[in-house]
Amino acid sequence: MGKNIILSGKEYSKNSELENIAQTVGLNPFVTTQFFEDTNPKVVSINTTWNRCSPISAHSVIVNAENYFNQIEGAVLFFDSSSYDKIFTQNTTENFTKATDELILGYTYLTLELLHRFSEHNPGKLFFVLQPQETKADSIKNPSKQPMTQQSLGLITSMAQNAFKSFAENVAAENYNPTGCFVYLLETSPETSEEQILSWIATKMQEDLPVYKNPKNAVTWQSTETKSKFQLSFGK
Q1: φ/ψ of residue 118, rounded to 5
Q2: 36 burial class (0-12, 13-18, 19+ CB within 10 angstroms)?
Q3: Which residues, including other chains, have CB under 8 Å from residue 61's CB and lie 6 or more apart?
Q4: Going by C-beta distance under 8 Å and a sequence separation of 6 or more, which residues neighbour residue 217?
Q5: 228 pLDDT more than 70
Q6: Do the strands 124-131 and 210-212 form a parallel or antiparallel pair, or are they unpaired?
Q7: Confidence (pLDDT) at 45
Q8: Count of alpha carbons within 13 Å of 53, Cβ hemisphere only?
C-alpha cells in the first residue's frame, strides 16, 4: 500500500515530474505548487499552494495534506540549487531579502510545522533532499578537484544552499532519538534523476526506522547509491 507523503520545494523546477514518478514507485504524493500573489487562483479540488514567505501558509499546507490523506506518513523538502540560481541572478538588496524569505525562512516554517505535526499526531519520516551545485568558493578551495559540468552558483543561491545544509543537519541532530519524527539527509549528484531520488525515498518509507551505530552517522548525508552501512534495523 502506498505511503502518504508531502513533496515540497520543487515549485520552480519547470521539468519536474514528481507527482507522476511518485505514483509509479508506490507513493501517494501531495505536491506543493507555486504561490502567485498577483493572479487569481484557479478553482482546484485541493489547495496545494505554498507561499514560502508565510508561516501561516506552511501550516495550511500541512492541514490541506491531512484533509486530503487523513494521515501524513512522510514529507520531503527539496533544495534544487540549479532552479533557484536561474531566479536569483542579480545581487540586489531586494533579491537577498526575497531569497532569505523563500529559500531560508520558508524551509524553516514548513519544517517546524512538520515536526510539530509528527510529534503531536502520527509519527512520520522527514527527508531533506539537497540537489547541490558547486559554489565559487568550492572551486577555489578545491582547485585540483575535477571541475563540475555546471556553472558555479551565484552568491545568493550559494548562501541559501549552505543555510539549507546546515539547517537540515542540525534538525537531524536534534531528532537523533526521535519520538515522533525521523530525519533522513540525502545529497544528490548532477546525474541523479528524480526517479532515483523518489525510488530511494519509497524504499526508506517502507523500511523500519534505522538505529545508527554512532551519532555522527545521524548527520551524514547519504546518496541514492549508499548502502545501509551506517544503519542497523530495529530488532536486529
Answers
A1: -65, -30
A2: exposed
A3: 6, 8, 32, 48, 50, 110, 113
A4: 230, 231
A5: no
A6: unpaired
A7: 53
A8: 9
Neighbours of 41 (CB within 10 A): 9
Cell numbers at 50, concatenated: 505554498
Interhelix angle 106-120/55-69, nearest 10 degrees? 40
Sequence-distant (6+) residues with CB within 8 A of 178 are 123, 209
pTM of the model: 0.90
In the numeric block, which cell numbers belong to residue 184? 533522513
d(CA 82, CA 194): 14
Per-residue pLDDT of 139-198, as tens digits, reads 888 876 665 556 789 999 999 999 999 999 999 998 877 777 899 999 999 889 999 999
Which cell is 140 given?
577555489
What would the pLDDT profile of 69-122 be if each residue is shown by its tens digit?
999 999 999 999 999 999 999 999 999 999 999 999 999 999 999 999 998 888
Q: Do residues 211 and 231 touch, judged by C-beta distance below 8 A?
A: yes
Q: How far apart are CA 100 and CA 236, in angstroms?
A: 44
Quote the CA–CA distance of 9 and 79 in Å, as a whole number: 6
**Long-range interactions of 197-201: CB distance < 8 A, separation 24+:** 197/129, 197/224, 198/18, 198/21, 198/22, 198/25, 198/27, 199/25, 199/224, 200/224, 201/5, 201/27, 201/74, 201/76, 201/127, 201/129
Single-letter code of the amino acid located at 154: G
The pLDDT value recorded for residue 233 is 43
- Report the distance separating Cα 115 and Cα 108, nearest Å: 10
CA 122/CA 137 separation, integer angstroms: 42
Query: Which residue has 558555479 as its cell numbers?
Result: 152
